[in-house]
Predict the 3D structure of the following.
Amino acid sequence: MLGPAVASFAQKQLISPALSAVNDGDWDDRFGALGLNGPVHAIAAHDNKIYVGGYFSQAGNIAANNIAMWDGENWQALGAGISTIAVNAMVYAIAITPNGDIFVAGQFSQAGEGEAAGIARWNGASWSQLASGGRDGVNNTVYALAAIGNEVYACGLFSRAGNLTVNGMAKWDGAQWTRLGTSSVNGVTGGAAYALLAHDNELYAGGDFSRAGAINANHIAKWHPARNEWTALDRGIDGPVYALAANDSGEIFAGGAFSTASGIVVRNLAKWEGSAWSSLGASADNGVAGPVRALAFKQPLLFVGGDFREASSTAANFIAKWNGSNWSPLGSGVSGMVHAFAHSGNGAIYVGGQFQTAGGQPSHYFGIWREQTNAVADNQNVLPGFALHQNFPNPFNPATV
């Protein structure tokens, strides 16, 4: 299959002439020489390190098969990386548990030198399957991962996880897979889940599905691990959800390709306040003018990435930020679709996708945005403390696969 990044890279790669280069100095200018040679679909931050996954074979000047780590100065490979024999390998998701295990998932059959069916674990030194015996993987693509404690949730196109028959979702508890629901009614149906968000010990799932477990749930639903049940978020959303994020107040943000949330007119972005949906902006041109593929909340700002050139009525090339009442661009933005975000404790936002420039300078598939008011020396790019938002996995573009 033609990977999502390759399939859609021929899309428009232009910067809006209406957007000035004000604040382009907030973009790190090192990733022309230190960029990657293929699209980024997942980013995670942990322990002073930034992990990047996607479809590439080189990071900076080193060989790195579809996954690499940025330490603030240089790229490092994670062993032999992620690969496959039959088709192009792709990393769509990265999740990190409190015990420091790094879970990587996507479309692949090998991690390091060993077999791994769609999901593998990196312990900081070597790759492994989730368990011995070779029956701990999945039988099709994984689009998203999320961790609640040391338990890891996965979603995608798979119908088997380990020895279990499942509907596109399952949980790995450290020893075995379990279903999200009963043996007969579990996971999501009527479509796939593309995005997961772990928040307050509960799991949110977004995608193009119509049911979650035994309930009707239009494109978004919540799983309650303590009760072992699904609930809907009112009447849901009228189109696919590709990205999810939460703020410190517990509000949930959903991004994708949709126009209403429970009947409320929205543009590809909506906020769930616990009992009702609302738009981001009061006018008819609220939200952004194109599909949202990535979300990250860094108090008090929501960062939004995707395939758009306008946020509300403000010019914004593929990336913008929302402060609760107004939209602003990130300088002149980037030159192509944004798939992934992460941030650490130093004010920097790490951006991955299908772009070749950021802030008007070469920046191949990866960039760092740092507000000047929070600027730090280059050798302090990653500081202790992190927040990970499992932005959309990042899934394929249904229109181009």
Observations:
- The helical segments are 4-8.
